[in-house]
Amino acid sequence: MEDEKLPLTSHLEELRKRIIVCLIAVGLGFAVSYCFAEQLFAFISRPLAAVLPPNSSFIFTGITEAFFTYLKLSFFSGVFLASPVIIYEIWKFVAPGLYEKEKKYVVPFVFFATFFFVCGIVFCYVIVLPAAFKFFVSYNTSTIRMLPSLVEYLSFTCIFLLAFGVVFEVPVFIICLSKLGVIKEQHLRSNRKLVIIIAFIIAALLTPTPDAINQSLMAIPIIVLYEISILAVRFTAKKNQEKK
Hints:
The protein has helices at residues 8-35, 37-44, 46-49, 65-94, 100-103, 106-137, 150-167, 170-179, 185-190, 192-206, 212-243. The chain is mainly alpha-helical. The longest helix is centred in the middle third of the chain and has 32 residues, at 106-137. The radius of gyration is 22 Å and the shape is flat.
């Protein structure tokens, strides 16, 4: 930790500069994304388009719905593109307040947190969304036809993608608690049954649909990630013992 202590006004000024840089990065990402908004929506709508009947299409019922849907999508994409800059600016703001031994954990933490978050999004896009949409489209009949709207689809998909991205952070969260000495491997092993129950409760809360299929598609990865966390905690504990 740096010896020199800055006054509150200096910290606020530093925070303001970091926020401005982040906003500029998001703005640039938004501008680039908006230029490709149509292609981005075609990409994000592919899981549903693949299971819809031939000649199906999205609709919008409000005059400005398509415009604002593209704006939302461009904003989400802009934040994603700017995320390396945002992470870097957060690091530059908090780094002076960390000890040297704490700083060495920051890069691995950021790397694995980003890695697992992206894995969650990819898992949702490739496996969960196609299965979910196939289930919902199965309710199409000769008298009932699905006509998905742009804004509804984008909201539904973003909630799913974000939920799975957050859920896949379980190993990172548990390892951090282990490093802080809050939990140990034995504690994790003894709570397996409870975790299974909690996993399905979390899945029921985070998935915007009540069907068991989508809840299972979220709950099962949570359980698997929990087991991975146990192995990771055991590995880090052995490493610490070897150093001692």
